[in-house]
Each structure stands twice: as C-alpha cells, then as structure tokens.
Amino acid sequence: MLKKTKVDDETATGQAGIKKKSKVPGVMITQFMEELPEGKTTPDFTRKPIALTIQEGKFAYFKAIVVGDPTPTVTWSRANGEIIFHPDVCQQKYDPTSNEHTLEFPKVAPEDADTYKCYATNEYGRAVCTVILNVIEVGFSKTKELQKIQGEDATEFRKRLKTRNPDGTREEKTMDVNEKVWEILLSAEKKDYERICAEYGITDFRGMLKKLTEMKKEREEEIAQFISHIRTLKPVEVKDDDCATIELDMDLLDSGSKIFLYKDGVMVPFSKEEGEEMKHNLKQVGKKYVFTIKNLSKDDAGLYSVDVEGVNVFSTDFKVPEVDFAVKIQEVKAEEREDALFQCVLTAPMNEINWYGKSALLTNNEKHEIIVSEDKLIHKLIVRDCLPLDGGIYAAVAGIKSCNAWLVVEVEKDPAKKGKKAARKTTIAGAGNDEELLRIAKEQQERYQKEMEEKAQLAKKAQEEKELAAAAVRAKQKAEAEAKAAAKAEAKAAAKAKRAAAGKDGAVRKTKKKVAGAGADGASGATGGVVGVGAGSAAGGAAAGTTGGAAGATGGGGAAGSLAGAAGGGAGGAAGVGGRDGSGAAGGAGGNEGGDVEGDSEVESDEDSFEDSDEDIEGEGGGAKGREGAKEGGEKGDLGGEGEEGGEKGEGGEKGGERRKRARAGPLVPDTVIDPGIHFHAGLSDCKAIIGEAAELECKVSSEECVGIWYKDGAEIQASESLTISKEGCFHRLKIHKVTEENAGKYKFEADGRKTEAEIAVEDPPRFDKEELEAFKAPVTIKKGHKATYKLSYIGREPIKVQWYLEGEELSSEGNINIETSDGTSRLLMMKLQHKDSGEIKIKLKNVFGTIEAVSQLNVLDKPTPPMGPLEIVEASSSVIDFKWRPPKDSGGCKIQNYILERQQVGRNTWKKVGPIGPEAKYRDSDVDHGRRYCYRIRVETEMGTSEMMETEDIQAGTKAYPAPPSAPKVASAFKDCINLTWSPPADTGGTSILGYNLEKRKKGSNLWGQVNPPNEIIRGKGFAVKDVVEGMEYEFRVSAINDSGAGEFSTPSEFVFARDPKKPPGKVLDLKVTDSTYTTLSLSWNKPKDIKGEEDEAKGYFVEIRPAENTDWDRCNSNAITMTTYTVKGMKSMAMYWVRVIATNDGGEGVPQELDNYILAMPPPVRPRFTDAKIKSFMIVRAGNSARFTINFEASPWPEVTWLKDGVPVSKKVTISNAEGASQLLIPSAERSDTGIYTIIVKNIVGQETISIEIRVTDEPKPPGPVDLDENVPGTVTISWTASPDEKRDDRLHYMVTKRDSVKRSWNTIADRIFNNKFTACNIMPGREYQFRVYAKNDMGSSKPSESAKWLIPAKKEKFTLKMPESKACDLQCPPKFLVPLKMHTAPQGYECYMSCAVKGDPTPHVTWLRNNISLNTNTNYLISNTCGVCSMLILRVGTKDTGEYKIVAENALGRAESSTKLTVRE
Length: 1468
Prior knowledge:
Blueprint: E1 18-21, E2 28-31, E3 41-47, E4 52-55, E5 60-69, E6 73-78, E7 91-95, E8 100-105, E9 114-122, E10 125-136, H1 142-161, H2 177-187, H3 193-200, H4 205-223, E11 227-238, E12 243-252, E13 259-263, E14 266-267, E15 280-285, E16 288-294, E17 302-308, E18 311-318, E19 325-327, E20 332-335, E21 339-346, E22 354-357, E23 360-361, E24 368-372, E25 378-383, E26 392-398, E27 401-410, E28 428-429, H5 434-501, E29 518-520, E30 523-526, E31 586-587, H6 625-636, E32 680-682, E33 687-690, E34 695-701, E35 709-712, E36 715-716, E37 723-728, E38 731-736, E39 745-751, E40 754-763, E41 767-768, H7 770-777, E42 780-783, E43 788-795, E44 801-806, E45 809-810, E46 817-822, E47 825-830, E48 839-847, E49 850-861, E50 868-876, E51 881-886, E52 898-905, E53 912-916, E54 922-925, E55 933-942, E56 945-946, E57 950-951, E58 955-956, E59 970-974, E60 979-982, E61 996-1003, E62 1010-1011, E63 1023-1026, E64 1034-1043, E65 1046-1050, E66 1057-1058, E67 1070-1077, E68 1082-1087, E69 1101-1108, E70 1115-1116, E71 1126-1129, E72 1137-1146, E73 1149-1150, ...
Parallel strand pairs: 4-10, 20-27, 21-28, 33-40, 42-49, 77-84, 95-102
Antiparallel strand pairs: 1-2, 2-10, 3-5, 5-8, 6-9, 7-8, 9-10, 11-12, 12-16, 13-14, 13-17, 15-16, 17-18, 19-21, 21-25, 22-23, 22-26, 24-25, 26-27, 29-30, 30-31, 32-34, 34-38, 35-36, 35-39, 37-38, 39-40, 41-43, 43-47, 44-45, 44-48, 46-47, 48-49, 50-51, 51-54, 52-53, 52-55, 55-56, 55-57, 55-58, ...
Helix pairs in contact: 1-4, 2-3
C-alpha cells in the first residue's frame, strides 16, 4: 500500500537525552542538557492519566496535571493513526484554576479504543506517560451496520469517480457537487475537514470520516500501481507574477506514465515547454512536478485534479475572490536603519493577503510586520530596520490580483561614517497618507455594502418569484383535485339543499352551516361558510317570490358554494377560492327582492371527513356589493377541499367557517417586502484621546432623516459647552472639545433600534510646553569653563521618568552635572564645561502612555589647536619660498580669523614677526636671499585666543633640487602612424614648479633610447603624440620632469605597444561548458572566439564572472585577464544557484559576454547512490548487552537522504544514526534480544536510490536444558529425552547436542548434534556396560553448561546356551525401494542452514543418490549427506540464492527404483 513519506526530525544538538526517574510510576523523563540553570526544572506529572474501560456512547476523558519551569506544553497522541480534534469527536482542554489538562471524548466510539500518550515538554526536557482506552460495544451495533452500508456506498461512489475512457482519461462531463466535495476531502489535510463539511453542508462528521477512510484505502492501493512515494502536496498558490502553481513530489514507477490535468472534471491541455504560449504548463525538476496557470482570471476558479494513468493523485479547490486593488502599493525610498511602509486598499474585505519580498513569501516576524485594518480593506507591510540587502521589489497579492513596487534603501554617504553601523532611526518611510487611505477605504466600504444590498434584493426577488411559481403549480394541482371532488359531492349537496329549502333545522351529521342573506336593489350577497369541495360551481335558477342566493365560502377550506336557487327566484352561485387567511366571498345576482334564506348543508366524502361544528356562521350581504365580495373571495379563497381554519372578514361577510385537516405549504400571493429600516454604513470606532485635546466619534447611517440618541456608559448624554452633538446628512458626530479623564468610557449611538458602540480611552502622555520647547531647541554656545543650564516644563500623568542625554549617553547627577526634577519641570545644570562636552543635548520623558523627546545643541568654545603638518613646499627658488600647511585639527568651535607667522634665518637667534596673514593656510615669502635657509613658526588666531605654535623644518632658497620621476607613460591610443601617451607629474617637484618634460622611446629588443622631442623644445603638457614610428614595430617610452634646477630622473618604461591601428574587440567565446564542480568550486572550459578580420580580432585574455541568482550584479572572479581557456571558480556557497559568463578581451576592449544556457548549482555532478565497500556483511551476531555498530560507506551527489529501517519500519529512538560525508553508521548502545531483525539502509537523492540489508541477531549463551530422562523402548537402544532450555522460545536457532560416555572408554563422545527437538535415540547400547549422557543447548554464541543424565546399565544375562533349531519356512524379504517418509517442501532464509530428510526401505539395501536440478550432489562437499538405517538426510550449511531449485533423491536396488522430490525456496 502506498504511504506518504514522513520525515522524522533528528534529535537537536545538545538533546542527546538523559533518562531520569519520576516519583510517579509509569512516567519517563528525558532531560535535554546535562546541567539545568538555577531554578529551572524538567517537566513531570503530579497526576498521570488513568486507564479507562467504558461503554460506547458515553462521555470519556483523561486528566493529567504537570509541573515544570518554564511551564510545559502538553500534547496528546495515539498509537494507531492521529487524533482528530473536533467538537463531536475529541477535544483537548485546560482548566487554569485546577491546572488540569484533559482529553475528552463527548460520545466515545469503538474506533476511539487505542493506546494514548501524553507529552509534557519544555526547553529543558520532556515527560511522557501512556494510558489505554478500552471501549465496550453493547447490544445491536448500529455503527457496524452503518460501516457496512457506508463501505458499500463508498465503493459505489468510487466506482462512479473512476468512470474512465479506455485510454485512462475521464469522461467529458462536469462534476456534480457530491463528486466534487469527496475529491476535495481525499486530498485535504485533516485540519480542513471541518471547514469543508460546513461549506458543503455535511453534518454527519463521524460518518464522513469512516466513508473517507474507506475511499482513501482504495485510492492508495490504486496509486501504488504507478507511484512508489508521494509527498509535498501544495494546493494552488497565487504568485506575484500573475500566475498560480500546484506543486507535488512523486516517484513514478514508470517515467513514461501519462499525467492528466482536469478542471471541474474536464481535461485541460498543458505544455511541457516554458516557451510555449499556453495557459497551463507542466514543469518537472527531478521528482517535483509544478503545474502553472498563467494570465489568471475569474474563469480559472474551480477544482483542479491531477491524474496519473487514470488514477486521481491530488485535487485542490481554487477559489477566486471578487477583489481588486483600489490603491496599489507605491515605491518607497528609505534611509538606512529606517522603517519602510507599503500600503494598499482593496475593493472588498479580505482577512489577509499575501506579501512577497524579492519573490519570497513574507510572514509576521521581527523583520516584517503585517497589519490589517478593522474593516479588512487597508493592508500594510512594515519592513523594520531597513538595510541595503532589504532593497528590491515587494509585491502584494489579493486573490488573483497583484501589484508591486520597489523598496530603495539609501546608504549613508558620509565618508566619515563609512563602514560604521548607522544609528537606528524611529521614522517610517512611506507613511503620511493615512487620511487619504481612510477616505478611499470608506468609499470602497460603502460601495461594497451597496453591492451586497443589491445582491440581497435580487436574491430575495428571485426567491419570491420561485416561491410564487411553486405556489401557482400547487394551486393548479389543488384546483384539479377539488374539481374532481366537487362532482362526487354534487349528489349529496343536492339532497341537503332540499332540506335547506324546506327550512328544516336538522342536525348535520358532519358539518353545520347557516346562510342568511339580505338583499337590496334586487341583488343579494351572501358571505358564508357553505361547505363545498373543489373549485366552485355555480348554479342558478329562478323561483317565484323568492330571492336568489349565491353561495360564498369564507372558510379556510376555500370551499365552493353551490346553492341551487331555493324557494323563489334563484340566483347564480359563484364559487370562491379561499386563501391561507381563510377569507373568501362569493356574490351572486339574484331577484329584485331581498330575502332571508336559511339552509343547512352537509358534505360527505369517501376519503375525507370533517369534524362537527358547534358554531353557526352568519353572513350579511349588502346589495350590489355581493359581486365584489365574490371576486375578492375568489382571489383569497383556499384551493383545497380540506383546508385550514376559517378566515377573517370578507367584503360580504364577517366571519368564515372553520375546518381542520391539512395545512398549506406556502402562500399563492408573495408577501409584501418589508423595509429593513435604518442600518449603519459605518459604525463607531474605538479611539484614544489625549487630555486637553479634542476627540470625535463618527458613524454613518443609511437615512438622512434618521434621528439618534447618544449614550455614555448606558446613560443618555446631551450637547453641552464641552460636548457637541451634530448631524450632517447621514453622518452623526459627537465631539469633545477638551478631553478630561471623566470623558473615558463606552459610547453608544442608537437609532431605530440599531446601535453601534465604541470606547474612548483617555491617555495623558508626557508633553512639553510649545513656547518653552522652541526656546529649548535653540543651540547654546558658551565659553570653556562656564556653565550651561537647560530647563523645560512638561505635563502628563505621573509617574514620569525624566532622562537627559549628551551625545546619546545618559547623564546623572555627579561631578559637574546636576539634574533637578520637580513637579512639571526638569533642569539640567552643567558646570566647568570643556570643549569635549560639545554635542547633542536630549531630554526624554516617558510614562505609561508614551514617550517624548526634545533635542538641543551645546557648543563649548575653546582655544584652537596648533596647525598641522607636514609642510608642502610649492616653490623654493632663489627669490621666493612658497609653502602650504593643514588647518588645525580643532578650531575650538570658532572660525579661524588669522594665521600668525614668525621667520628665523638659520644661524641667527632672532625671530622676525611676519604678521597676521589671513585665514588661508598658505604663505609666499619673497624677501629671501639666494642660498639662505629659513625656518617658520605658525600659530592660529580665533576669538578665543591664539594656539600653540607649529615650527617648520628648514627651507633653502635657490638650491638645485631636481624633480622626482613622473609616473610611467600610459598608452592612450595607438595607430599605425601615431601613438598617444599620457603621464602624471612627479610627487616631488624639487621645491620649484615643473617647467616641462623630456620623452624618449626605444624599440623592442634594442638597448638605445632616442629622444622624441627636440632638445630645445620641452613638452609643456602631460601628454604627447609620438608620430615618428614605423608601422608594425613595438615600442616602449619613458619621461623625465624639468624644473628650475634641470631635468630629473626618467620614469620607469611604459608597456610595449605596437604601432598599428586599434584592434576590434573579440567575439564571444565558443563551446563554454562546465567540466567539473564541487560544493565550493566550479571548473569551466571554452574555445577561443573566431578571428573575423575587420569585425572581431584575436582575444588576448579572458575574464570569468558569476552572479548569484538572487542578485543583479555580476562579480568578476579574476582581476587580471587570464590567457588559458580553462578556469576554476572558488569560494562558492554549497547548493547555491549561480549564473556564469566568460568575456574575451584584447587591446580593442572587451567582447560580448557568453553565458551558460542555464544556471548551475554549486554541487558535484549528480551521482546515483552507490555503496563503495568491497565486501559488506549481510549477517551479524551480537551478544546481548553489548553494543552493535555497523558502518556503510557510499558515494552520492547531491548529498543524499539516508534512512534506516528495521523490518520495514523506521528504527526506534534508542538506535543512534550518525551520518557523515560518504558514510552512515548505525549504533545500538546496549543490544537486547528485541533488537534482532533485518536492518535496511536507504540512500536516496534526486538521481536515484540504493538499498542494502543486514541481519543483526542479538543473542546470548543459552541456558542449559532441563533434567535428562533415559528409557529403553527397543532392546539395544536408549531414548534420551530432556526438558527444553528456557531460551528455546526466544531463539529459533537454538539446538541441542548429545554426548555419551561408557564405562569402558571413559571419554565423552558426541553422538548427535543439531537436534531441534527434545528427544534422541542412541543405538548400539551393549549390555553389561554403564552409560552416561550429557545434553548441551547450542546457538550462535556457543554452548550451555551440560545437563547430565543418570547412569544407565543393562545387566548381562548369563544363561545356559541351548540351541533349538526351529522349523523354518523359506521367507523372501526382498522388495524394491519405497519411501516411507517423502521429502517435504522447504523455505529457508538466506545465510541460514537447511536440513532435508526422508525414510526409505528396500531389500537389498538400495543405493541412494541426491540430485539438484538433475545434477548429482553425492560428491559435492558443500552438502553434508548421510544415510543411517534408511534415514537419508542432507544438510546445507549456508543457504544462498544459488541453492534455489528442485531437489530429488533416488533409491535403487536390483528390484527397482523409487524417487522423491521437493523444492527449496530461499527468502531474502
């Protein structure tokens, strides 16, 4: 049967598990770390659950109380399957008052019987205990009957689901709702069962689960025919690129199996190539299959199913909500360490939308915060503490609609702060348009509500039309029934009419009616309860002297009246059909005179009967109005002959007759649509108000004429000086001008029975006085040694914490700082300030309602520091000395006014004051003598005073100081007749300005330099065009600088350059490919690009560049071009995705990059798992109590998933699995006999998998057998029997060995071995000798101590020998061979022994031959063959697959031949 792959989490590092004992028996505690922190404890049970046996249908529960610090988390599990938490099935609860954790079963069922485990876990350990639930089934079990019926239903339903065409495709038809819901449930997770059942109206939850279990089992069996494993089933997920995907991982048994995609049962075509322009696409990566739906629209909604070879594998329901973006997210530019905000507004409410950052789904965490407004229309994403890595494209996805925008993170550009972590900012980029978003959201909410109301009205109208049509059909059916019944009742009605005409007041057997009419203007109307059946019939006649009467029905039966013209001028009677309200009227036109007609009528039916009526029904009619009453009664009369109670007033009468039989199903005329009244378009919202500021509540109702009442805490409130109540159209507002603490509470607005509530929470955060705050912000400048005072008043709810900061460091009252805080005022006094105390002064106030800050600047003035060197000599000629220096490091906070210079001629003691020279840090001294040396002192002057001096080194006027060499010339461009060069001037000019340069050239291979420029024409610029060159020759150049002293040394030569026209950049490299790869390196090779004359020249070198898939920038791997056509990229991240390209380059520049066709993964080439050990043991014996260790070496790429199984199921937790690169080790620390089994290792990666098994047998030296008994059944033999060893039941390989010793030889000899029963017969027992026997138990570990028998002696009888020769008859005992016991069938495990035996008789003794597959084995040393007294046996010491086959034994003598055969099957 197919099973979904389950990946068990490995034990976390440091949680190896230390077993501890609990004070409560049956509780096992595992401690995760060796030493616990002080005060912390592992979980434990103070009360564990108690085993329970209970009758089915009763309420069952388990209770547990746990302790531990931190408080443990309690979970429950069961041995078979998973616990389904549902109010009707099972619930987990916790009572904080009693600290009891309970697992409750409201109505326990037989399938709930199982072994349950309760886990208590915290970060330091885990405690677990086990409890059993037994359920008793009593009486007739409806559950079993239901299971049987539902099993049949499930089978029939699966057959309907499996209706397929011969090619495996489904029949082309749309799925009905029943098929759809079951296909959804088959692929849904258990947590979604309740939601799906509620959505599709399934109420029998337990019945659904049983039916679903049967269907799942059948489907798993079908899937197993085509798929070995299936996992990672992801439902439809909408991406940010206008597409949706369905993902599943499955291992197909046949890679050529056909895969189909259906939508609502109809096959959907799809492409397997990404380039094809089809709506549906299938992409396969290894064993992952991804279906993509492109260009999403509303029509894409439906149930998508994936089938493999006609078997449904996975189904998911794709729903498309009707929603769009009213306001899309916009680009946000944020500074580093600032928060960024994305906002959008939807057209319809949604609980949540999906946010993506750089194509990755985002969730609520410390980095990203997702916020949804109360009306579910405004959705926000806040990116906290933005860093450059956070920049990129962010997207919002709602339904199938999406929008995206860039987040641009601006990095700090200040060079001084480069490399330093910027300070955290409290501002939010992208905020500020909240009011506009709220306005748009309100508009969308109103539009949405209006659409919902319109849809509700349309639905109501459609329902009314449906009900009206149904009522008309019912009315027609009843009218037809009444017409038939009326014909039946005519005869009886005529008889009763005669009695009524005669004026007899006979008692009516069933129903009594009285009809009275009074006429005017020759017309009479009657409103009555004349009973009739069917649609009314009219009868009229003329009679002299009497007024014609018309029969009308006002009864709930809607009867008909049929009164023949009685006693006089008759009138036509019209039948009325009564309605549900029981009112009906019939009017007729009679004679000219009105009269009273009183009659009794009785109606009987063969099928229906009516109860007697004790109430007379009277009616008065008024002339011509009778016809109107008849008409109205006809509209409102009941259709049925068996009706409801009598109706109310009609036009022509007061009251209808009363009959009771059947009630109607619904009205013929639709009910009047009732106005829903006032309702709210927007309710009140909670708000926070600050004391002293204004607060406002607002709501919107559906009518402008609405008048409402405001309440506070249940009491009505009116407008006052501090409170204003206003109404503007549909908006009602309550405004508090100046909030106080008394204004806090719940406010309610009520109109026309509808109400909305909100709460005003009054807060009093700290606040500054605005005028004082402005004064505080002004920078403060003082002189060194003075004091500075800051004072600021504030208001707010006490207690308020006041903190002062200087450059981010908190200040306290100590030393020269004094902080005073009194009621509403805080003062900072800083005394004896130094220049280093300059910086930002900040005050921070905080209370329970919030925090506020104010910032000012402190500038402490001081004397400047001396100017800074080194001195830069601009010119030192015979007539002038020009030099520069650097400004002071700190100007003391003041502007530099002057530099004061003094000069001394070296060799003299006096200093000459040159005077203030201004604020520029340079000086040109023209009062110098040629050859003299001078020294200078420089001071800085500011308003705070003069700095210390800086003394320069000696400067000589007019010395010959040659300039240093310039930089090596660089080739700017080269042509066949000209080479353009540039260079940089020397750093050391020799104290004077550079006058020009000399340039020399040299051919390659020559030692002679030639000057390029004429000797009398120096080069004035820093570049030169050399035209004296020969095409095709290679040159190098050098340059020297010239100042007043002359030409300096030449520079280093330039690179060699050809005199030829510029080269064209090379083309793309050819045949770029990956030759090798590891987890950190990638080896590439390529061929040189083609050399196309005039278009692409030959490449001189190559650059290799890589780009991680998540980045857009290419990184160059080699800074200098390489000439080889191979390269190895190093330092890659394991399993990371990279794009790679190679660029060819030459003197003409870089060519077009050549990229690999696809991205590459940093991993070795894929290698199918393979075991590398030359010989791997397949059998291991371990002594109980010892450790069992088994190591398997393998190779695979990529890194495989390693799984160990014991007898086909995952190994237990006591087994330690250690996986390393290329090896896996299984360790059983202390082996027990229960650890015996076949252990299988599965090494699996995306390329394939490999398995190998080893049998580990855990055993110990056997215990000796029991007492040994001896018995002589046949003379000359002894039957030895013994009690089995206690280990025989636990060890299927245990056998026995028997040894013998007699009084003659006195040594122990083995007479039998490998005995698997408890009895053996020893032969050749001689009388007169004393025998003793020992029995040993043996297994794979060795032999036990012997069990010794008593001594056995058969005394020798010495009797006188008398020979009697009896008369003998000749007897022929010869017979052909015959098998008394034939060979039996054998099945043996691989590596074990196999023992075959049979019994044969024959005289003369037959010759026995063993054969396997008709090949003799008698001479084969691998088989141990024996024949003792006709018992033929063969032992195979170690069974292998080669031993499988047919075995035959042939016995032959002179009289005949006999055969017996068997088959040996070897089990792996």
